[in-house]
Amino acid sequence: MDFPLPARPGCFLILLFVTLTSAIKKCEYDKTSCSCVTEEGVIDLKPLSQSEPYSAEYKAKNERFYWDPCKDFTMGTITSGAIQVQVPSLYYDIGAHDNAGTTVNSNGQPIFYMVAKDGARTVFVTCICTDDFSFTYIKEDPASSYLLELKSPYCCPGYKGGNGDSGLSVGSIMCITFFSLLVTYVLLGTVFQIAVKKASGKERLPNYVFWSSLPGLVKDGVLFSISGCKKSSSYSSI
C-alpha cells in the first residue's frame, strides 16, 4: 500500500551536521485512538490505517506479514490486526487489537505489540521517527515472536501530518536545532576568546584561523580531486 507523504520535507542537508533522535521513556497506549502518549507528545498512528494493511516480506522462508496499526482485517479465513502468510496459503493470526499495548525499547523508541487470540504468537512493531516511510520484517526471536519495523514521521511525538496547523516536521526541528547550536557556538566562543584569551579584532571569533583558511582548503581539495588525486611534481624541466 502507499504511504502518505509529509507536506513539509524540512532541511535534509542538516542531517550532515545534526543527528536528532526522539528518545522517549514512556509510551502509554490508548486503544480507542490508536495512539500512545509520551512525555514528548502523542504518537498517533490513525492516519496510517487505510483500506489495505501494510505488508513486509521475509524472502528466506517465503513468508509475508500483514499489519494494520488500528483495526483488524480479514485475509483468507483469519480476521486479526496482524497476520502471517506462509506459502502455500497458510494463514496465522499473530496479533489482535483486543490484545494490544505499547512499550519502549532501550533506544527510547516506542514499540506497538499485539498478541494472537490464542496467545501463542506475538508481533512487535518498532516505531522509528524518520522523514521517510518503510515497513519491514526484522526477525523471529524467540520462536513465535515476530519483530517488524515501521519508519514514519507519524512515529515522531506530536507529528500531525503537516497540514498547516500541526507541529513542526522532523526536518524543521533539525534546522532549528542546527542554527541554535551554531549561534550558541559563536556566542560562547566569542565570550571565551575575549574573557579568557584577551583577544581583539577578528581574533575574537572562535577558531578564526581555521575558518579563515577553510575556503582555501576547500579550493585545494577540489583542485586535487579534479586532477585525479595526483600530486604535482616539484621538479622543473631542464
Automatic annotation (TrEMBL):
Signal sequence extent: 1-23
Keyword Nucleus appears in the UniProt entry? no
Q: Which Gene3D superfamilies match?
A: Mannose-6-phosphate receptor binding domain (2.70.130.10)
Checking InterPro entries in the record gives: Man-6-P_rcpt, Man6P_isomerase_rcpt-bd_dom_sf
Q: Which GO terms describe its cellular component?
A: Golgi membrane; trans-Golgi network
Q: Which domain of life is it from?
A: Eukaryota
PANTHER family membership: MANNOSE 6-PHOSPHATE RECEPTOR-LIKE PROTEIN 1 (PTHR15071:SF0), MANNOSE-6-PHOSPHATE RECEPTOR FAMILY MEMBER (PTHR15071)
The protein's name: Cation-dependent mannose-6-phosphate receptor-like isoform X2
